[in-house]
Q: What sequence folds into this?
């Protein structure tokens, strides 16, 4: 079986953390990633940019609606994901609007953090 | 082109006024970052003051400023990188160089850069209030303080809104480009919406800072001119420009000396800006001639009929009602429906209008819209149903927030009250 492990936390904790604390946390993540890589469990993983970089895409009546922010409605639950390469946000939005779920739900487009 | 008597300082001030937005737009493309570009431009102008005094004003000041700003910024990035990473690889900071051929060639893309800037600031992945703020700050060059004053929010809030917008552009990878032909209609809609929002914010007769508000109308008109100039195929941009010119031409007569809202039939038409009306009418004409008119062009056509009437009585309400019916078919909203009802009342009488207004009121969606109640009250007043009119005016007053409109409603209330007591003395 494969499992997706989703990390939920208050992103302000990262913003407000003093540099040494953030550094220690990063080291801990690196150690953890190495450990699951060594044990053969690791498939892939990424840190995401904070929610203020998010854009939500919906298609209603054949028309694309783009909004700033991660505004999934509370009656919508995470149902899947795609990790894609795109040259900019416009291309990513263009791909998002073609996902069938965009017509009934919403697709949150969030950049992956690059290191 | 150098005026005798204009010294270097004055010349630089003039270049800043006329060209700083173009320079900024190109620097954003070259440096790929709004904040870096703003810093680089400020630095380039500071360098120009020293350098042009010491030697002479270059033959192409704009290219010089772009090139200097770019080099300064690259040098600084290298210096910063060196301080942080102690990297020995960074090249030593270069001294300001004369404009290169490449820099001059970059100028050919300058008009495209201004358009890129407008479309990026109005990108639909940004919240609309952020689009408006960023457009005013970056494309129009208004200060953060002035924008904050115009929208009645604290300066710190506005500053934060701008920072958040520019960081989203950078971090989420919003591209700096003119949309493709396929995307253009949708993207242009969001640009026009921002321009019209800037205008209506300036035009709303609130008690806010008059000068800043006037400035907003002027900026909106300038922005629309830029869009018309840069995207000649976009008829709706021309329609919006016409609409704003025609509204703005009446600015001086919209308030009475005591700050009460004056309706169209009460305004002194001799005080309307005739030149601006003439331009607006010509643009409406051109837009309608171009074919299928969009919502802005249709509203501009309505404004044109008002502006062209020698007096209120000669207004062609029949055509206005027809235009609103057309608009209703294109953009069916309750507010347009209300405007249509008001026009119908002018053609077929208040009873006909009242039927339509009652139907809108029954649906409830405009329950909190003061102008629905004001229009309702006005029709009842004209039907001499003064008690019902009084109640409707009072509901409108309870919902109205803008001072001149409140004063207008208070005047109407006191008029109707005398009529109430005249028909039913107590």
A:
């Amino acid at each position: 079986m494969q499992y997706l492990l989703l990390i939920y936390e208050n992103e302000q904790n990262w913003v407000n953390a003093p540099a040494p604390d953030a550094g220690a946390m990063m080291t801990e993540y690196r150690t953890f990633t190495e450990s699951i890589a060594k044990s053969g469990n690791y498939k892939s993983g990424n840190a995401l940019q904070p929610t203020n970089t998010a854009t939500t895409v919906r298609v209603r009546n054949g028309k694309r609606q783009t909004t700033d922010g991660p505004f999934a409605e509370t009656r919508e639950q995470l149902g899947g994901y795609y990790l894609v390469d795109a040259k900019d946000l416009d291309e990513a939005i263009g791909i998002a609007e073609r996902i069938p779920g965009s017509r009934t739900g919403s697709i949150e487009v969030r950049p992956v953090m690059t290191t | 082109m150098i005026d005798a008597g204009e010294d270097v300082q004055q010349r630089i001030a003039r270049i800043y006024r006329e060209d700083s937005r173009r320079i900024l737009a190109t620097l954003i493309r070259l440096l790929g970052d709004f904040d870096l570009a703003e810093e680089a431009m400020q630095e380039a102008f500071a360098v120009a003051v020293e350098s042009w005094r010491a030697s002479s004003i270059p033959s192409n000041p704009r290219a010089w400023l772009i090139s200097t700003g770019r080099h300064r910024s690259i040098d600084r990035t290298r210096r910063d990188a060196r301080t942080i990473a102690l990297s020995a690889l960074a090249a030593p900071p270069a001294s300001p160089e004369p404009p290169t051929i490449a820099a001059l060639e970059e100028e050919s893309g300058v008009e495209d850069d201004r358009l890129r800037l407008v479309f990026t600031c109005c990108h639909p992945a940004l919240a609309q209030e952020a689009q408006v703020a960023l457009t005013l700050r970056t494309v129009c060059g208004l200060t953060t303080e002035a924008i904050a004053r115009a929208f009645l929010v604290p300066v710190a809030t506005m500053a934060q809104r701008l920072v958040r917008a520019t960081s989203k552009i950078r971090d989420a990878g919003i591209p700096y480009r003119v949309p493709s032909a396929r995307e253009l209609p949708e993207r242009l809609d969001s640009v026009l919406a921002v321009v019209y929002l800037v205008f209506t914010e300036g035009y709303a007769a609130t008690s806010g800072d008059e000068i800043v508000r006037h400035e907003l109308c002027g900026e909106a008109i300038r922005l629309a001119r830029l869009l018309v100039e840069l995207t000649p195929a976009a008829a709706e941009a021309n329609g919006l420009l016409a609409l704003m010119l025609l509204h703005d031409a009446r600015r001086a007569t919209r308030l009475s000396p005591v700050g009460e809202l004056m309706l169209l039939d009460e305004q002194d038409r001799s005080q309307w800006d005739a030149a601006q009306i003439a331009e607006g009418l010509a643009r409406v004409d051109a837009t309608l001639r171009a074919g299928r008119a969009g919502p802005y062009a249709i509203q501009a056509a309505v404004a044109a009929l008002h502006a062209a009437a020698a007096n209120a009585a000669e207004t062609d309400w029949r055509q206005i009602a027809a235009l609103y019916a057309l608009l209703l078919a294109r953009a069916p909203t309750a507010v347009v429906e209300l405007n249509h009802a008001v026009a119908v009342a002018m053609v077929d009488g208040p009873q006909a209008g009242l039927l339509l207004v009652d139907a809108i009121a029954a649906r409830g969606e405009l329950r909190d819209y003061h102008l629905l109640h004001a229009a309702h009250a006005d029709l009842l007043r004209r039907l001499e149903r003064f008690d019902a009119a009084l109640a409707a005016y009072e509901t409108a007053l309870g919902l109205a927030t803008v001072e001149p409109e409140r004063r207008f409603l208070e005047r109407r209330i006191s008029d109707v009250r005398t009529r109430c007591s005249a028909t039913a003395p107590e």
